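Aromatic ring-hydroxylating dioxygenase subunit alpha
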Amino acid sequence: MGPMVKKQLSADEIVATGLRNQWYAICPSSQVPKGSIHRVRRLGMDWVLFREPNGRLRMLEDRCPHRGAALSLGQHLGTKLACAYHGVQVDGEGMVVSVPGLPGCNLEGKRLVPSPPIKEVAGAVLAYIGDDAHPEPEPLTLPDPLVDEGVSSFLCYAEWDTPWRYAMENLLDPMHGAFLHRESHSMFGGGTQARFRIRETERGFFFEKTDQRGLNFDWVEFCRTGIDWVDLEIPYPPTAGPGGPFGIVGIGTPIDAERTAVFFWRYRRVSGWQRDTWRFLYRTKLEARHWQVLEQDRVMLEAMPHDADQAENLYQHDLGVVRLRRLYRNLAEEQVALAPELAAV
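Structure:
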């Protein structure tokens, strides 16, 4: 695969653009149909995705190894991309397979373009983004609702002009549901006062209200299983059909220091005719209402200055936010501390 990060990043840069050495959601699978070339920016780096004739998805750093031109501007040749600048051809594993201008050139046969491991799960592309010390992928345990056959889900994808940390912290802030989303179809119930606690789990922690359950956005579980994700549950009114509450698996991926790609899988544990009813109601009625809630989050977060967290006055409801910040800061500093050791090897 080759090194994924070529310059030493500071802890601040890692916190801003995303931790390395873990998996991230990259884009919906539907954005990369056969024969297309799709460019994305993730973790402050540019990438190109394409499919081979057999449907296999490939992901490369969007950089020709010859002069650094964007491979995404080139030609799709089935199992490889040809750079538009000088025709250099790179396959899906990042190997230079042809230099048309100088056949037999010493670039040929070398893997010179990073090609991260990828998976397609529940309609989304996941990729492992490592550094020099961890080029091979960390073990990945996928979110339960995305692999449970008894769960039916829909992926909602958006890009927000807000730092990654704010998008993630918004998910660790259940209390905003009782205010910002008070008029929504599913979060109109419950009180506007609460006490919270953190409850540890083997894969992360719960941040939950101690005095209310099943009335609003009352709890969230943060999980680190090779990929960072949250799981939460929100009650449904009877008009949403059979199946009980609906859940959300949320993942935020940094585009760069100022923008975030957000992935929300809305799901219910339903089967048979209940599954069919849920999917019909979602497409015809509920999806539009869910997008209204997401828009409320987007508008609020995009209006916050990027240094808003430098002038805060936090209180008990923000314990989940503080816990997440400390975790990411500690992990970022660990990655920075390893860099000098790596350079000495």
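The radius of gyration is 22 Å.
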